[in-house]
Amino acid sequence: MAKAHIVNIVVLDNPSAFFNPFQFEITFECIEDLKEDLEWKIIYVGSAESEEHDQTLDTVFVGPVPEGRHMFVFQADPPDPAKIPVADAVGVTVVLLTCSYRGKEFIRVGYYVNNEYSDPELKENPPTAPLFDKLQRNVLATSPRVTRFKIDWGDNPCDNSEPIEANSEPMVTETNGSHNTSGNAVNSDSSQHVSEDSAGPLKPVLCHDSNHSQSMEVA
């Protein structure tokens, strides 16, 4: 049984300019104390054709984590345009939020992302070379793809090579936005927190960035 569960994710500052940071307000719950850190990553898929264009935008370690419910805001810089193929700069792609324990990924949440020009003229006649400073990013947050993996939490070893579940779940939500099954994006309005369970206050945990030695307290 998984010892940590994502309760809710809210995509902040969405829609936003391409060069603005990604921001996710993450609420998660632990059913018992975790002695080691949870490793969170934000990964931007630069091209559907090859994983070599994937960019890990940031990694943060949270822990040790006591039993209970916790919340923090995970912010990451936008992707490097130089690493995105020209043909994939405008249109629909994916951003992934992953969490691992002891180096093993146990949950992955994927969102469609639509990059398009806000200027009607550029939208009608897009330039050959993408103008990233003119692009607007819209994370389609109403239907995330949630995949769970079996891992060893320190009790019994298990094989995490296959996902045990892959579906869209209402527990990870944002209102006022949608996308259709063809993959064509539609606009999203303001972010709004939605949670199925409002039990209890959030407890503080320690969060430290993988690139910095200092720790910061989040609640």
Indicate the topology:
Blueprint: E1 4-11, E2 16-17, E3 22-30, E4 38-45, E5 55-62, E6 68-76, E7 91-101, E8 104-117, H1 120-124, E9 135-149, E10 163-167, E11 205-209, E12 216-218
Antiparallel strand pairs: 1-3, 2-9, 3-6, 4-5, 4-7, 5-11, 7-8, 8-9, 9-10, 11-12
Biased composition (Polar residues): 173-193
Subcellular location: Nucleus
Main location: nucleus
Could you characterize the architecture of this molecule?
- The chain is mainly β and 219 residues long.
- It has one domain (4-218): Histone chaperone ASF1-like (Immunoglobulin-like, Sandwich).
- It has one helix at 120-124, and strands at 4-11, 16-17, 22-30, 38-45, 55-62, 68-76, 91-101, 104-117, 135-149, 163-167, 205-209, 216-218.
- The strands form two sheets. Strands 2, 4, 5, 7, 8, 9, 10, 11 and 12 form a nine-stranded antiparallel beta sheet that branches.
- β7 and β8 (104-117) form a beta hairpin.
- Residues 166-219 have low confidence and may be disordered.
